[in-house]
Design goal:
Number of helices: 18
Shape: elongated
Helix content: 40-55%
Largest sheet: 9 strands, mixed
CATH superfamily of the largest domain: P-loop containing nucleotide triphosphate hydrolases
Number of domains: 2
CATH architecture of the largest domain: 3-Layer(aba) Sandwich
Structural class: alpha/beta
CATH topology of the largest domain: Rossmann fold
Oligomer: single chain
Strand order of the largest sheet: 5-4-6-7-3-8-9-10-11
Number of strands: 11
Strand content: 5-15%
Length: 458
């Protein structure tokens, strides 16, 4: 049998908080840092707290008589002077802040119930509403108030302490604030991928956007970072095959087609076992932005230590339902803004891959620049870091096939400029660039070392 449930409440804690405020007004700033008037369940308690705050803000003395005098203007649902005296007798001023947290806890529970009911009443019974969109909005509604337990306006000393903590972590090479890509010059130049920020990796087709992201994900996971790869362009098996190719050095297309020697097959099996142990979560065939957000929220709840998410790629994501009739650049703007909010709200690094517009192809100099993103909504404005991938061989066959520029065109917290990378067409992966002369010297040194070793054995 269904029985109507009483909403969450803690009337004893409410009385204790009000009594403590009347008995010792010096506690009020600490109480206000935890709760608001709306957090009290009983209307009479809400009015009492409002009366106390009125007196406090006016700099007037607070006791049973002054509070009762303010409450006399209330026509109904107000406590009597005897009720106020009982509250003071019931109070434990030394425990007032803890009692305020109990009041806040009940208020939070009521809000959750109200949010669920609102979602049900307004949208669940509407057949035109996407269930994933409803769930995503509900989660966003709840998570947007993650700071309810601290409604105060923090002093700069608290923010300074937080910033210093991040600086110390970076000083000690602690990658809690920056996710390493495993690409030496990228990690040196920009520090890696920053948590709580949006990084956009853009380029024309065949420049290696997915390959770069897969390389960074694999390298970060090997360092113990929990990462997620949401692929919209390719099946997840294709991404995994690339990672196996990178790990084994076996040509990617040979792995895909099963054209392997017995020894190579053994290598792939061993690599797949190693890959299976890495903290990587991968999902494909998700185009709805609402569903993607729901997936990320769900994964973060299941894996609180999730640090790094890749979305491949922006232009294939379907915009939220409410913006489907907007221009495509405005729709993409909603997606990039949502991705930025995910990064900031969850404290994770978000990498959003993006196509550059065709205007690049019309330029005599095909090297991309930041202005080539201007038709892509707010991508340029929302991103904290924008890097453009450019492989000259795509336009000029005489250029080195393995050379790629990683052009940092925007860096909110650091320098911009071009970084040289090596692109391996065989394994479809990136690595550090080594100048041909340096590579030749290293090769010569290695041969000389091997020769001297053999001579020593003679």
């Amino acid at each position: 049998m269904n029985q109507q449930r009483i909403p969450p409440q803690n009337l004893d804690a409410e009385k204790a908080v009000l009594g403590a405020c009347i008995a010792d007004s010096s506690l009020i700033p600490e109480i206000v840092a935890v709760i608001t008037t709306a957090d009290f369940y009983l209307p009479s308690h809400q009015k009492t707290f409002a009366a106390i705050l009125t007196l406090f803000n006016e700099g007037k003395f607070i006791d049973v008589i002054t509070v009762d005098n303010v409450l006399k203007s209330e026509p109904a649902q107000r406590p009597s002077a005897a009720d106020l005296c009982a509250m003071v007798e019931f109070a434990f001023p030394s425990h007032a802040v803890e009692h305020a947290r109990l009041v806040k806890d009940s208020a939070l529970r009521r809000h959750i119930i109200e949010s669920v009911r609102a979602a049900i009443d307004e949208e669940v019974y509407d057949p035109n509403q996407d269930p994933a969109s409803i769930a995503s909005k509900l989660i966003a509604s709840l998570s947007s108030n993650r700071d309810w337990y601290s409604v105060k306006f923090p002093h700069i000393s608290e923010a300074t302490s937080s910033a210093l903590k991040d600086i110390r972590a970076s000083y000690h090479n602690d990658s809690r604030t920056w996710i390493p890509t495993g690409l030496r010059d990228v990690d040196i130049r920009i520090g890696g991928i920053p948590r709580g920020r949006l990084t956009v990796i853009a380029g024309r087709p065949s420049m290696g956007k997915t390959a770069w992201a897969a390389t960074a994900v694999l390298n970060a996971a090997k360092k113990g970072h929990r990462v997620a790869f949401i692929t919209i362009e390719s099946p997840k098996e294709a991404i995994i095959t690339r990672m196996l190719s990178t790990m084994t050095g076996i040509e990617n297309r040979n792995i895909q087609r099963g054209r392997l020697t017995e020894a190579e097959m053994a290598q792939v099996v061993v690599a797949s076992e190693e890959l299976s142990k890495l903290p990587i979560w991968i999902r494909d065939a998700q185009r709805s932005w609402e569903r993607i957000k729901l997936l990320i929220h769900g994964l973060k709840l299941a894996q609180p230590e999730l640090e790094f998410v890749v979305l491949d790629y922006c232009q294939l994501i379907e915009a939220p339902a409410e913006s489907r009739h907007d221009r495509r650049d405005l729709e993409i703007g909603r997606i990039s803004g949502g991705a930025k909010a995910l990064a900031l709200g969850m404290g994770i690094a978000v990498v959003l891959l993006s196509q550059l517009n065709r205007e690049v192809e019309k330029q005599s100099n095909k090297r991309p620049k930041l202005s080539d993103m201007r038709d892509s909504g707010n991508l340029e404005q929302d991103a904290d870091i924008v890097a453009l991938l450019y492989r000259p061989v795509y336009y000029d066959e005489n250029k080195p096939r393995d050379f790629c520029e990683f052009i940092v065109s925007k860096n909110r917290d650091g320098a911009v400029g071009s970084i040289k990378l090596r692109f391996d067409e065989k394994t479809v992966s990136f690595s550090d660039w080594i100048e041909p002369s340096q590579a030749q010297n290293e090769h010569t040194s290695a041969r000389a070392g091997a020769r001297s070793c053999r001579l020593g054995q003679v």
